[in-house]
From TrEMBL:
Protein's name in the database: DNA 5'-3' helicase
Origin organism lineage: Bacteria, Pseudomonadati, Verrucomicrobiota, Opitutia, Puniceicoccales
GO CC annotation terms, alphabetical: cytosol; primosome complex
Similarity-based family: Belongs to the helicase family. DnaB subfamily.
PROSITE patterns linked: SF4_HELICASE
GO biological process, one term: DNA replication, synthesis of primer
Reactions it catalyzes: ATP + H2O = ADP + phosphate + H(+)
Top-level taxon of origin: Bacteria
GO molecular function, one term: 5'-3' DNA helicase activity
Amino acid sequence: MTPTRKIPYSIEVEQALLGAVFVGGEEAMLECCEACVCSTWFYNTRHQLVFEAMLALIGKGEPIDEITVGDKLKSTGNFEAVGGDATLLELSNAVDTSSHLPYYIESLRKTWLRRQLIEQGNRLIESAYDATKEPEESLGTIQNAVYALGESKAENHLSDGHDLARMAGMQADVMLKRKGEPMGLCTGLDDFDKMVGGLLPKKTYIFAARPGMGKSAIGITIARNLVVPRRGSAIPAGYLSLEMGSEELSMRLACNLSRVDYNMLKEGDLSPTKRTDFNQALTAIDRAPIYIDDSSSLTPLQVRAKVRSMKHRYGIKVIFIDYLTLMEPTDKKASREQQVADMSRQMKAMSKELEIPVAVMCQLGRDAQGRRPKQSDLRESGSIEQDADVIAFIHRDEEAEESESMRFGKRTLIIEKQRNGPVGDIPLTFLKPMSLFENYAREDGPVQEECAF
Ligand SMILES: Nc1ncnc2c1ncn2[C@@H]1O[C@H](COP(=O)(O)OP(=O)(O)OP(=O)(O)O)[C@@H](O)[C@H]1O
């Protein structure tokens, strides 16, 4: 028989912490705030109420002592519930000094964390038994909850002048050493890398376009440039393709890398040189650190769980999501705007959590047709505009539309938003049957025919 186990908590530590705040007053309470102590960390409900009263007082800059805390509890109708003056007296006499407060805080956090782990463990067991739930959904939810628990230890985010000077100095050293080379991962699209500085960790990049403008192609091109670079070492990349299956994607990748026209391949009309190029591309892809997941219906939480696992298993340094609104909404009853806002927020949170750049493809509605797109075209949710660090529209202007051929088109990458740099237009060449974007040949010269190696 399993022995009955005691829920982890310590009334003595809770009393000592509250007692230390009574002794140390505002200063001690500020120390609690800095360590992100919340009332839910307390097991005892009375202690929760007392701590909430203390929080309310410090929030208004008012002093903290037995009288003020008692008055606050009376004003919220909780004075009797905590046990009145007797409890406040007991708490204020619990310790003589506030000097051990950091110890009480850490001890309180640990017992709270144990209770949370037990709760999440129980939830996991419950949802594993629940046949109405997809096990992946339960796993994603629990993974995120457990990750959030890991974040509960307050980190020091405060920097003084000394820290700031050191940080700016270090960044300047790196920039000077790079001699104008982008700080982030090079996409291979030179003007984009110059304007945006490549893809940086913890940043979200939106590539948005109307249907058929080349969203997937730009994702494939950048991913390919990273995993099979022209120079330097390969950068492991993840690709979540909610739209296209991995078979189609593998062919696009091979055509992109070998510069083989897919239509010629389909017609069985490939020169021996091109056949060799294609085979070489297959060899390069075979060794490339690219990880594609083509699950088609994932919620934002499941996306995060998958990408987290890609990072842990394969060490990916960047993730591509093709495309945002194909995700399954977490809350099916919420408005579309709220659903998309949740997707966008989760992608931003993921870039911060995993410390990698997140490149998100985004579909624009038909009403953006026939004109230059603008930020408000990301209308399904204003939060995409807000959350993204860089927003780039893939646009085909009127002139380009007229000169477009079956194989070849000109596109403008409109950098519409950049938090830390200029905005502007970047011309690109789109080689359609190769799913390939490249730097625009300004001289209108012939399309380069050689492959990437
Ligand atoms: N084999 C091919 N030959 C010629 N053009 C092609 C070929 N394959 C794709 N295209 C063109 O490339 C464009 C599609 O590229 P891509 O799939 O990258 O765009 P997208 O914006 O992701 O499209 P979607 O709306 O399907 O998400 C379309 O204009 C399509 O006509």
